[in-house]
What we know:
Layout: E1 10-15, H1 19-31, E2 38-44, E3 48-50, H2 55-58, H3 68-75, E4 76-78, H4 79-82, E5 88-92, E6 95-99, E7 104-107, E8 111-113, E9 116-119, E10 123-125, H5 133-136, E11 138-139, H6 143-159, E12 163-168, H7 172-192, E13 199-204, H8 216-226, E14 232-234, E15 239-242, E16 246-249, E17 253-256, E18 259-262, E19 266-268, E20 299-301, H9 321-339, E21 354-357, E22 363-367, E23 370-374, H10 375-392, H11 395-409
Parallel strand pairs: 1-2, 1-9, 2-5, 9-20, 11-18, 12-13, 12-18, 13-14
Antiparallel strand pairs: 3-4, 6-7, 7-8, 10-19, 15-16, 16-17, 21-22, 22-23
Helix pairs in contact: 1-9, 3-11, 6-7, 10-11
Amino acid sequence: MGHQTAEEKKNIVILGGGFAGIRAALDLANYLHDDQDYDITLIDRKDYHCYYSALYEAATTEHRQVAAKKVKRAVAVPLAEIFRRTKVRVFKAYVDRISLADGKIITDSRIVPFDYLVIAMGSVADFYGIPNLEKYGYTLKSVEDAIMIRNRVEEIVSKQDQAQIVVGGGGFAGTEFVGELHNLLKHECRDHGKRLENFKIMIVEGAAGFLPGLSDKVAGLVAARLAPMHIETRFTTLLTEAGKDYAVLNNKDRVPCDLLVWTGGVRSCRLPVDSDLERDRKDRTTTTDALNLKIYPNIFIAGDNLGFIDPATKRAVPQTAQEAIRHGACAAKNLYRLIKHRPLHAYVPGSTRFIIPVMGKYAIFYTPNLIISGLAGWVIRKLADLRYFATILPWLTALRYWLFENNLFMKND
Length: 413
């Protein structure tokens, strides 16, 4: 096959450097590594890949021991490092608009044409219309969020003799966060000569226990692990209003709140497209079973932007890192098959398995048929982290990142 000029080359563009976008870009680079007729470009407003699974630890690093730049280094992998030995070009830009019909992406600096497109732009916190929650609640969706939370905790302990921190949401993010938050408060109180018992943590959850949707046994393991910390739990309770120094529960109970951290849910970011796409109540876009759009088969949706109904459960697949990675791999494979004029494969959701860290060297590994908790669960979690880094980086580089992350975050145990 003869080489084509830049004008004749086909442009594959991936929007988003999260779990789905990274996987799609790496797989496409592998499929097309010796094909000079295709350019691959990944566009993201940041020049790094955020390892969201470790944000709860980043948010609970001790202010005095760990500088902010080290926190960022532990959870932010430069895109240039990931794609160093590939044909993927990284373009840092903010996407203003996507013209699906014209095949153009309008960014804040230039217009990028595309022949094939993967949209994986991620999610935002879902505030469910709760009054003032977006104004006063801290979210945990970025490196900047994590650093703001840990700085705020240090500020509270250094300036006050008592306080209450309210965590909205007892799902995965909230459960992981509260245990490490207790440890952070313990360290900060020691450093500032304050009494730990005067700094309270309350977790508010609408369901009847931790981790709604999983088994009662898992919820019980979490409750038992957190019990010695004397964290106040308000189950079957809704956060209905937020204020500067208070939170309202169930529209009637007003509780003091010096810091409100919202982990109660996410929704797809609103895609800046010029077409009316079918979306679900979480703003996730509906696709064919091959993850591409019916009216634009050259455009694929992945990650938190995808609203895919599992044929087995008749429910939308969960917005997890594992599913996002699978989306990215499927989108890349089908995009390549589309290029080669081969039949596309239907997406098959992965098996149900989760790892839930709950303070220190303790985690719960869950599948419908097997539950492993304690130190063994924690080891499985750490090995899963290493395995992920090894799928996006050269082995030695992955090991270096993993060791640095562990050395940093275990200081809070």
